[in-house]
Amino acid sequence: MTDQATVTPINATKSAASKPKGPAPYNHEDLILIPTTVPEIVARTWTNNMEEWAKGVPLPTYHARERHLASTAFSSDNRLITWILVPKPDADVTVEYKASTVSAKTAAEGVRGGFNPEDVSEENMERIMGAVETYERPGIIATAGEDAGLKDVISMSVASVYAPSKYRNHGYGKLMMRLLWKEIENRGVSFSFLYSDLGAQFYTNFGWTARTSVEIVIPPSLALPLAPTANSDDDSRKTRVSAKPIVIEDIKDDDANQSLGRLVDHDAQLLRATIKQKVQEATQVNANTTFVAPIPEIRSFQWLHARAWFNASQIWKFDQTQIEKSLNYGVCVPGTLDQFVLWHHDFTDDNLFILRWRIDSTSSPEESDAVALAFIQAAQLEAKKWNLSKIVYWNGDASLAKLLGLEVKHRHHSIPSLGLVNSSQDEMNVEWVLNEKWSW
Fold first, then answer.
1. Could you give the CA distance from residue 285 to residue 280 in angstroms, rounded to a whole number?
2. In whole numbers, what is the pLDDT of the chain averaged over residues?
3. Phi, psi of 204 (to 5 degrees)
4. What b/e readout covers 12-25, taking b as 16+ CB neighbours within 10 angstroms?
5. Type and span of the H or E element at 153
6. What is the per-residue pLDDT for 245?
7. What is the distance between the alpha carbons of residues 57 and 169, in angstroms, rounded to a whole number?
8. Quick one: which of 166, 169, 173 has its CA closest to 203?
9. Looking at residue 146, what is its pLDDT?
């Protein structure tokens, strides 16, 4: 999940700057997609994608961050796989490419020959035409009208899709995604998802269909609605809030009653109940809908926190005491497990992302509004504390936008895209439940 939401240009727009830089090094039939665990080769994929994602971070620091993230529980137990698109061991470059690089003195100026999966020489690693990461994640799937009920399955998220710029525009990125889908099909995976920066259509060609992609952007300086005065007869949702003060507290990753683990585990239980209800409702109207969702798990939130911690500590150089004391996971209503907001400090793109948002569905409208405003006020304070310019909520509840007087806007980047694997179900009859930033 180096940059889960950033699936980088592997088929750039047809401009003069994006035309092929000479003949293709290898024919498609001479390329294969293989997993690698060799540390030097994995590190080379990081070096390659730095040209797009480092944003000024020096190589040693960039590599240190990726090693830090690779050491988390989310990336352990073979959940993370790094795939590389490379020539077969007995392959050689095309005649046209060889002729165009006849004067090359180094592999960087002109590659030759096939790839050896154990060789960490510069000459061999220059033969990496592309790379992509996948993460195995627990999921749920259920289809209306079927007797099987909810099924616990394996899902696979796709991240860090990348082709070095000098090897682009030869169809290698498209080839890599076709080969990856075949690999996913062979691994017992029920569904796969990614986040596209190449528009809604590109990944549909390989199995991933674009889903709902909207967001609410909340300025930290936004004036929040106030409770109506005693003489007010305005009962609109925009101003209706509970007179009861809402107490909130920070969420900690420890063993306390409202710890991160307990909240996430309960959230997963509530997700199951939500999908069961959706299945029942769809069955009653004879809708042939399949509902899917990755299951919230503490490891994914810890991975995002580890990323924020590294960026704050090693790149933006915030005070270490402030980081340890104040870089929190979110806030919750004490004594409850179903009223909380989890967030992520995205220092790279200057956002405080709302990862998960849950308010007790049995609360009165007045109580729900009051809790929502308390959460937003806490998020505003958090954003200001870390000098983040906006709060972003992917696929947020339209009622929250209405309460705040904001618009729900379409998002043209990081488009969530999902596909069922080895299924004949029409992709238009698939609903991704909890399609929010947390699963990035």
1. 9
2. 91
3. -60, -30
4. beeeeeeeeeeebb
5. strand 151-162
6. 82
7. 27
8. 173
9. 83
Return the structure tokens found at 18.
């994006």
| CA nearest neighbour of 66 among 45, 37, 86 | 45
Beta strands in 37-126 (DSSP E): 80-87
In sequence order, which ranges of 222-349 are alpha helices (DSSP H)?
260-284, 298-310, 320-326
Tokens representing 83 are: 């795939």
Structure tokens at 215: 């967001």
**Whole-number pLDDT of residue 149:** 85
- Beta pairing partners, 416: 195
Q: Which residue has the tokens 């958090």?
A: 382
Tell me the two tokens of residue 90: 């007995």
Q: How confident is the model at residue 254 (pLDDT cuts 50, 70, 90)?
A: confident
Residue 9 has pLDDT above 50, yes or no: no
Residue 207 near residue 419 (C-beta atoms within 8 A) = yes
Q: Which of 42-56, 253-267, 329-343 has the lowest average pLDDT? A: 253-267
Whether the predicted pLDDT of 8 surpasses 60: no
HSE at residue 253, side-chain half, CA atoms within 13 A, is 17
Output phi, psi for 55, to 5 deg: 50, 45
Burial of 259 (0-12, 13-18, 19+ CB in 10 A): middle
Q: Quick one: 249 exposed, middle or buried, by C-beta within 10 A (0-12, 13-18, 19+)?
A: middle
Residue 203 has pLDDT above 90, yes or no: yes
pLDDT on residue 14? 36
Which token pair is 331? 């806030």
- 3-class secondary structure, 374: helix
CA distances from 277 to 140, 187, 291 (A): 14, 30, 11
